[in-house]
Amino acid sequence: MNLHRLGSRDVLPTRYLKLGGEGFVLELFDCQALTEGAGDHPLFDGLRRVTFIGGDGAGAP
What whole-number distance in Å separates Cα of residue 58 and Cα of residue 20? Predict the structure, then answer.
């Protein structure tokens, strides 16, 4: 399983995360990112904060 719910607004995706908004898309592979929801639903009502936890930097320039 990729998503682990840690609280009413906190979710920990452990393998894959794709976020998008006006004019941007962020896609993460093989990296953990703790997300804090901005509304009642932990993902679909927007995000208040994303904290990147892991990754080996292999894709970094």
Answer: 23
Residue 10 has pLDDT above 60, yes or no: yes
**14-29: average pLDDT:** 90
What are all long-range contacts of 19-28, with beta carbons under 8 Å and residues at least 24 apart? 19/47, 19/50, 28/52, 28/55
- Identify whether the C-beta of residue 13 lies closer than 8 Å to the C-beta of residue 33: yes
DSSP 14: S
Q: Which of 14, 7, 23 is nearest to 54 (CA)?
A: 14
Nearest residue to 12 via CA among 58, 59, 51, 55 = 51
